Amino acid sequence: MAVRTPGDYYVSDVYSEPVKLANAKLQLVNSSPDPPAIADESSIDGVPIVSTNPPNIAIKTSNCVCDKSESQQPLERQRTIDTLQSTFVPNKPLFNDDVIIFLITPTYTRPTQMPDMTRLGQTLRLVPNVFWIVVEDAHNQSKAVENLLRRTMIPYVHLLGPRPPTHMDQRSGRGVSNRLKAFEWLRANYGGTNQKGVIYFADDDNAYDVRLFDEMRDTQIVSMFPVGLISTLGLSTPIVNHKTGKIIGFHDPFIGRRKFAVDMAGFAVNLQFFLQSKKATMPYKVGYEEDYFLKSLDVKIWQLEPKAKNCTEVLVWHTKTKPGDKPNHNMMIKVTNYNETNLPSLYQNVMET
Amino acid sequence: MAVRTPGDYYVSDVYSEPVKLANAKLQLVNSSPDPPAIADESSIDGVPIVSTNPPNIAIKTSNCVCDKSESQQPLERQRTIDTLQSTFVPNKPLFNDDVIIFLITPTYTRPTQMPDMTRLGQTLRLVPNVFWIVVEDAHNQSKAVENLLRRTMIPYVHLLGPRPPTHMDQRSGRGVSNRLKAFEWLRANYGGTNQKGVIYFADDDNAYDVRLFDEMRDTQIVSMFPVGLISTLGLSTPIVNHKTGKIIGFHDPFIGRRKFAVDMAGFAVNLQFFLQSKKATMPYKVGYEEDYFLKSLDVKIWQLEPKAKNCTEVLVWHTKTKPGDKPNHNMMIKVTNYNETNLPSLYQNVMET
């Protein structure tokens, strides 16, 4: 297992040009006739570095916001943003002094994948200091997913975690192989480091209020919060005694033999607590993934940290996007003069995987 | 009909403290132990002004990004953003010199409303210079929607456009009364002005790639683009002759008697063109809303402007969120010591409408 210390190569590279970074000035120009700024993709040892500029921002070099040339511009024409650019290396771990939220998102190719991943990626652009671990249930990386990750401009790793042939049955369920792959990557890249972090399972079709990420950021061991739209009860939530502020049980449509009757989106785990729990794993067992994972962490009910105002607010929903149809090529080619139109290119772009 | 000229009260108020605005400095502190900055809600004639600070940003006053005290902070601890704050008055029109995108969103109370509106609102936070016209199919404003609009921090008006009793049948469809109300508001507030703008129908459950809004921003008359996940064809798109770059027809699962066989999410209209088309309206006729509206604008096919790389890219999807159940209070109150737990408050918060 590779062991890295924080900043062993990442931070030092960023610091190699501190003056350039400190002086970078971004000027946001609405409806500019110029094309949008293209990400500066230089490289370290052949690995591209992507600068995370806010959208629609053209770069202009200047040191001071109080330059007269700018303050004379009318308010409606521009908002001026000075910022230190944050940089990341795609598919490499991120190290810094703050708490990083590691979002583990299992995904697979289907007609609703791009809209679901687009919504999630855009949501994450509003969250500071996140790292997106996207794991496909596939043997080859999807080009569409890779392009989306590059566009979204948040630090990420794009992994493959195909479901093994031994677990293709209905009782095994989706997403476990993906999450196990993410565990492996986290242990390989953060084991032996003291990076502060929180792990959260962010399925690609749920809906997240960005305030959720503020809530989970100070998770010490395992934090929990309500999830909306869970089956017949309409939600799943820890039960909190409002005198003690402690979690005492669970209100969930499916209790079964579960000690922790929670949804996958209903809890977050401290990174170092996870890394120290060497036996932490997730079983291929539909309905029991969360419970067995939490049991494998050896967390006690009294240690659970209720969030979202003592579990009185819903900030995440277990939404499901209705399945949709793929573009129908047989119908498309019936269009008169098909080859002289946009349709061949459109079909090719939409079917890109 | 009230006629306003640009800036008749809005811009002048903003300019009343230009120095304060120009010098406002925002410092983004990740994982700060301090509580997040609260929106500055002062008021003009009793109407609150909301400052649109980026999320998790604490305000610090300083004039220059090159202050030594800041450049000595480590990179991981802070990103420094200097910006002119943009301000808006809730429920009042916005005027400025740039193109404003007016998004018309019909909505109604249902268990999936908050997750859908949350995703859309968060997407719009990434788009510069938008104005969100949210119209409820209801006789009373939903408190949950109002709170969401205030949180989202983008300029908005919150209107009511209930479906009239004469159009409650299945052939009338949802959303028309809402959009007609939005037309009325636009004419009342922008008629007689020369505000530059684009009108777009953004239903609350679709998925939008933020690049779509860049595409539509320079709409001169009516622009069009493909929409994904439309029924059995998997998409709806204008057909573009790639030699002339002109729209020559439509590829859509439902052609019927439609001249413009497009989805509601597949086109945008120039604000001034709409305002000058005095007869522009939308019929209560399921399947024909888009077609009749475009016909009422008296736009010609040769005038249509193809966007999204000549209609070869899908940047918006007609996603549908599966309906969900409301929280089940009868089951909740069976929990032992119900009144001593978080459940009563959680139920009250989730059921807030």
Describe the structure.
Two copies of one chain form a homodimer. The first copy, chain A, contains twelve helices and 18 strands. With 353 residues, chain A is of the alpha+beta class. The first copy, chain A, has two domains: 10-87, no CATH class; 100-317, Alpha-Beta Complex (Spore Coat Polysaccharide Biosynthesis Protein SpsA, Chain A), CATH 3.90.550.10. In chain A, the strands form five sheets. A seven-stranded mixed sheet of chain A has the order 9-8-7-10-16-12-17, with helices on both faces. The first copy, chain A, has a three-stranded antiparallel sheet with strand order 4-1-5, with no helix packed on it. A three-stranded antiparallel sheet of chain A has the order 2-3-6. In chain A, helix 4 (113-124) runs parallel beside helix 5. At the A-B interface, helix 1, helix 2, strand 5, helix 4 and strand 11 of A face helix 1, helix 2, strand 5, helix 4 and strand 11 of B. Chains A, B: Its main location: Golgi. Chains A, B: Belongs to the glycosyltransferase 43 family.
